[in-house]
Amino acid sequence: MESKAELSRIIFPYVRVYKDGTIERLAGTGIAPAGLDPETGVLSKDTMIIPETGVSARLYLPNSTKSNQKLPLVIYYHGGGFYLSSTADPYYHHSLNKIVAVANIILVSVNYRLAPETPLPGAYEDSWAALEWVVSHARESTGRHEPWLVDYADYGKVFLAGDSCGANMAHHFGLRIKDSELGRELKIEGIAMINPYFWGKDPVGVEVTDHQRKTMVDDWWMFVCPSEKGCDDPLINPFMDGNSSSFEGLGCDRLLVLVAEKDILRDRGRMYYEKLVKSGWPGTAKIIETKGEDHIFHIFDPNCENAKALFKLLGSFFNQA
C-alpha cells in the first residue's frame, strides 16, 4: 500500500501531489468570513449560484449605499493559477473590500472550481455560468434572485475584472460575449486586467534569462492543463498565429492593463496591450506599470502605497463618465 507520505510531484512552491492522488495545497486555503468590514465599511455576503457544482460568489457592497442607488457592477475573477485560492481567501477578501470602498462599486467575486480536480476548461465554464447568472438579474423576472444585484447594480455600467488567471478569463469572456446570446442582453463597458496570466513555450522578454521562473510557470500551466499544445494552448497563449487576429472582436469599449515591473508575466501583459491596439479593435486601451513591485503585490499587501494607487486607478476606470 502506498501511503500519503509518498510524494509523486511538487508544483513549486504551492502544491504537493502524492502517489495516492491526494493534492496538498500549501497556500490559498485560508478562510475569511463574509460580513461587515469595520475598516472599509463594506458589506459582503456569500451566495450559491449552481448548487450542483458548488459554483458560488461573494458579493460586496458599500455599507453607505442608499436605497435605490445604482452603482457600477464589477464581475471579478480571482487569481491563483487556476489551482489555488477562493473568494474566501483572506488576501482576496481584504483587498476586494478596499477596492470596493475606494471605487464605490458593487462587486461579484466568482468562486469557480479549481484544477486539477476540475480540469480546464472547467474554471472558464464555471465563471461564464456565473456571468450568465449575474446578467439574469437584469431581466424583469429572474426567479431565484439576489436582492443586491436587483436593487443596486447599474446594468448600464458593467465591467469584467480579474488578476492573474482571472484576468486571462476576463479576456476570453470579452471575446466570447460579442457574438453570444449573452452579448445580446448585456454590453460590457470595460475590462480591467491586473497582472494578466498569459504564457507561451518560447520565452520572451525577461523570460529569456530568467530560466528558473520560466520553468516554474511552465510547470504551473502543465499541472492544470496537460494538453498536447502545452504552453502554446490558446487558453494561455493568445499570441500564436491565428489567435491574436481575434483581438479586434473584444466585446468592450475600454480596457485597462496593469503590469508590475518585477513580475515574470510583465512582458506578456505588454505584448497583450500592443497586440490589442494594433488589431483594429475600436475601443480605448491603457497600460500602466507599477515600478518596484512583483506579481499581484496589491493582494499580498493592500495597505502599501502602490496598492492604494492601484485601487484609485481601478476606481477611476470603473467610474469614468
TrEMBL record:
Record InterPro entries: AB_hydrolase_3, AB_hydrolase_fold, Carboxylest/Gibb_receptor
Domain Alpha/beta hydrolase fold-3: 74-298
SUPFAM superfamilies (UniProt xref): alpha/beta-Hydrolases
Superkingdom in the source lineage: Eukaryota
Gene3D superfamilies associated with the record: alpha/beta hydrolase (3.40.50.1820)
Xref: PANTHER family: ALPHA_BETA HYDROLASE FOLD-3 DOMAIN-CONTAINING PROTEIN, ARYLACETAMIDE DEACETYLASE
Family: Belongs to the 'GDXG' lipolytic enzyme family.
Name of the protein this chain belongs to: Alpha/beta hydrolase fold-3 domain-containing protein
Lineage, opening ranks: Eukaryota, Viridiplantae, Streptophyta, Embryophyta, Tracheophyta
